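Annual report, structural modelling task.

Input specification for the flavin-adenine dinucleotide complex:
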Amino acid sequence: MENLKKSFDVIVVGAGTGGTTAARFAAKKGLDVCLIDRKEKSHIGDKICGDAVGAEIFDILKINPPQGEELSCHIKGAKLYPPNMKKCLTLIDPKQAGYIVNRLEFGQRLLNEALDAGVAQFLDNTMVLDLIYKEKFVSGLKVRLSNGEKFDLNAKLVIDGSGFNTPLRKKAKNPLIENEISKTDAILCYREIVRFPKGDQEVMDPEYISIILDKEKAPGGYIWYFPKNETSLNIGLGVFMDYGGKVKEFYQNNVFKEFIKTPNYEILSSGGGVAPIRRPLWSCADNGFMLIGDAACHVNPLHGGGIDPSMRAGFYAANTAVQAIEQADFSLQKLWDFNYEIMTSIGAEFAALDLLRRVLQRLSNDSLNFGLEKDLLSSEEILQVSSTGSLDLSLLSMATKAIKGIANPKLMLDLNYLRIKMNEIIKHYKNFPRYNEDFEVWKNKTIDIYEKVEKMSYG
Ligand SMILES: Cc1cc2nc3c(=O)[nH]c(=O)nc-3n(C[C@H](O)[C@H](O)[C@H](O)COP(=O)(O)OP(=O)(O)OC[C@H]3O[C@@H](n4cnc5c(N)ncnc54)[C@H](O)[C@@H]3O)c2cc1C
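The model returned the following structure:
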């Protein structure tokens, strides 16, 4: 590979939704960018996924929403069911509206737009192996081409968007970058895209994604039923990582048998994957290094949705990279601006939703049925929680809830305590310290809030 360029302003690892967004906006602003993926170019975007994307991100980034071949269908909102499915909460707001995409076509479009924006070099079929540190700064990467040839690439900045199993997070030397993600902070998913002949089976609520909470059928996660069009579905479930060997069995018994009623089905795609479901890393940066998307746990902990946040993080990282290059400052102190941007936006929301997720994972099916049936959390409140991570209840609505929740006062009190802690953590994240402020104090308070929620006994 003699004519391979080996030095860049920025190297972006991973051409997923986060990496292509980071590369696109960095290149658009004139940076010399190299984008690398281990997959072949024509497979970029092909990921086992629920394929649901919110509409808002396309407005924020001012890029075209999915259309044409990459669009499966438009979604008005979400329907949330308790285990007994007796009642459904319908969640409709601009943030819940969105699209079901054809993941490969969507990923290919994002890649092509990044390349058109001026990415200087795209290396597909190239495995990134390790970070190169020089005097405490990340200064490049060790990579291996598909022909087995290994070499080093140099960069002023490396942006890691190589997903949950990134090899780079494990090699990061800054102790604020957690090298390993706890098994309890991730969820194992399995899904299929199933097609059936027209008229053989009705698609339930074709304009909504449906989510079913059930501690027994999907322990630790939920079942999803997402329409693709009038003859196909994306259905699957997420479970605690400990159920590793059993996830397919859970899917067969609790999802496929439950929802596929015709014998004339065709399975178009099947497979599993892991999604992180926790607040972002303590720091998503080191000297010369930023992490985005699944690699940095930029995923909604409530439902595992990470396409929009990875794109948002890619955009923030590109903006910080532009400033860092302009000022020739690649230190963590400069890149802390990226941390600040993340923590005060999606970080605040995800920390609050992480607390909610931890409580929901422990509630019994009876409590879930009771809580949703009695409107202890209403559609509006769930929307407020899932879109902002905070929940402001008037005294009147608290009193109404107290009456409805009278048969289960413990659950009522627990949910109220949780609400207080969610509001507290969101404010706390909005006050994320600047680089020279006292991070340790901030970190200890975060741990304290988490520990208090962990100690709840749950209704
Ligand atoms: C089953 C399942 C269902 C999901 N459903 C949804 C959903 O409906 N909606 C939603 O918003 N989110 C969903 N998610 C989460 C979503 O898929 C991710 O959050 C999102 O894709 C993260 O994007 P990313 O760019 O960070 O990483 P990825 O999309 O994982 O991209 C990482 C890229 O890095 C490349 N790569 C990895 N390692 C290397 C290496 N060593 N060298 C070079 N390249 C490398 C990979 O080939 C890949 O192209 C789901 C996840 C799973 C597992």
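Residues 13-19, 36-39, 44, 47-53, 127-128, 161-163, 167, 189, 191, 273-275, 293-295, 299, 304-308, 310 surround flavin-adenine dinucleotide (CB under 6 Å).
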